C-alpha cells in the first residue's frame, strides 16, 4: 500500500516537472526540411508560441546565395516531388498575399530567408497572427522555401518560383 502510494506520488512529481518545463519555453513544434524540385536543401525550422505570435527559427543549408520566399503553406503534405501537395499559403483570414509586416497578408507570409555565399541561411523572428493550434494554428501544416525571392506583392504567392524545400510542422 505505502509503496504504491510512493510510486504514484513520484509520478505526479514527474508530471509537475515536465509541465513546468513546458510553461517556461511555451508550446513548440518543428519541421525537418526535405529537398524538393531537384534541390539539395536541408535544415530545420522550430516554432515556439509567444504572446506576440510565433517565434520562428530556421537553419537551412544547400540554398543558392540570396533571398528565398519562405511561407507556411496550408497542407502538411510534402510528398509531391515539387511540393505542390502542400497547396497554397496558409490563409486563415482570407486575405491577399502581402508583406509580412502588413495587415493585408496571408497568415503564412514570412520574411524571405537570406542565404550567404555558402548557401546557408539563418532566420529568427516573431511572426504575428500565428499560433500552434486553433484557427490560426500551424501544426499539421507545412513550411516551404522557394527558389526565388518573394516580391511581397504578386498574387497569389509573391512570384517566388519553385519549391526547393518542404517540411511538415509537427508538435513536439
Ligand atoms: Cu511558399
Ligand atoms: Zn502569401
Number of helices: 1
What is the number of E strands?
A: 10
Order of SSEs: HEEEEEEEEEE
Largest sheet: 8 strands, antiparallel
Describe the structure.
There is one protein chain. The chain has 172 residues and is of the alpha+beta class. It contains one helix and ten strands; from the N terminus they run H-E-E-E-E-E-E-E-E-E-E. Strands 1, 2, 3, 5, 7, 8, 9 and 10 form an eight-stranded antiparallel sheet that branches. A two-stranded antiparallel ribbon has the order 4-6. Strand 1 (28-35) and strand 2 form a beta hairpin. The chain is globular. The two termini are 36 Å apart. The structure holds copper (II) ion and zinc ion.
Please summarize what this structure is.
The chain has about 170 residues and is an alpha+beta fold.
Give the SSE map:
Blueprint: H1 2-25, E1 28-35, E2 42-50, E3 53-61, E4 66-68, E5 70-73, E6 113-115, E7 121-127, E8 142-146, E9 163-168, E10 170-171
Antiparallel strand pairs: 1-2, 1-9, 1-10, 2-3, 3-7, 4-6, 5-8, 8-9
This protein binds copper (II) ion (CU) and zinc ion.
Amino acid at each position: 500500500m505505502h509503496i504504491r502510494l510512493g510510486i504514484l506520488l513520484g509520478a505526479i512529481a514527474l508530471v509537475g516537472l515536465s509541465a513546468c518545463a513546458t510553461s517556461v519555453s511555451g508550446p513548440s513544434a518543428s519541421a525537418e526540411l526535405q529537398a524538393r524540385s531537384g534541390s539539395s536543401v536541408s535544415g530545420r525550422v522550430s516554432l515556439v508560441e509567444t504572446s506576440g505570435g510565433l517565434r520562428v527559427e530556421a537553419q537551412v543549408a544547400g540554398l543558392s546565395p540570396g533571398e528565398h520566399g519562405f511561407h507556411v503553406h496550408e497542407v502538411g503534405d510534402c510528398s509531391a516531388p515539387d511540393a505542390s501537395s502542400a497547396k497554397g499559403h496558409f490563409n486563415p483570414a482570407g486575405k491577399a498575399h502581402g508583406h509580412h509586416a502588413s495587415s493585408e497578408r496571408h497568415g503564412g507570409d514570412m520574411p524571405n530567408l537570406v542565404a550567404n555565399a555558402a548557401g546557408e541561411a539563418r532566420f529568427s523572428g516573431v511572426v504575428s497572427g500565428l499560433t500552434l493550434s486553433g484557427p490560426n494554428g500551424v501544426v499539421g501544416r507545412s513550411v516551404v522555401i522557394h527558389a526565388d525571392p518573394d516580391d511581397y506583392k504578386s498574387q497569389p504567392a509573391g512570384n517566388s518560383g519553385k519549391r526547393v524545400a518542404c517540411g511538415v510542422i509537427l508538435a513536439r
